[in-house]
Each structure stands twice: as structure tokens, then as C-alpha cells.
């Protein structure tokens, strides 16, 4: 967290698979992952259709490259 950079959390899992599921879920929940996904799919839409989607335009001012 920005306001508490030293704060740490401990997670306990029953097995390695459960641990990997948690790590994947936390990674995909991050702002950076979602931002990269949005940028990727924006480019994919443009490649397929040849134009920028209206949805993309609505978020253009909030995404920083």
C-alpha cells in the first residue's frame, strides 16, 4: 500500500497448488496487471478492426503509458 509501504501480510496455504493460485490471483488483481491488460486488448481491437473502440476513448485520459 502506498501509505503503508512496510506493511506485510502472511498467507497460509494447504499445498503448493493453493499457494500458486493465491499468487496468481493477487498478481492479476494488481493495478499494473489490469493496466497492461487494458493496453494489450486496446491494441488487439485496433489490429482487428482498424480503429480505436469507443470504450478505449472513454478511458484514454485515465491511462498513462
UniProtKB/TrEMBL annotation:
InterPro entries: PH-like_dom_sf, PH_domain. This is PH domain-containing protein. Residues 1-31 form the PH domain. It comes from the Eukaryota.
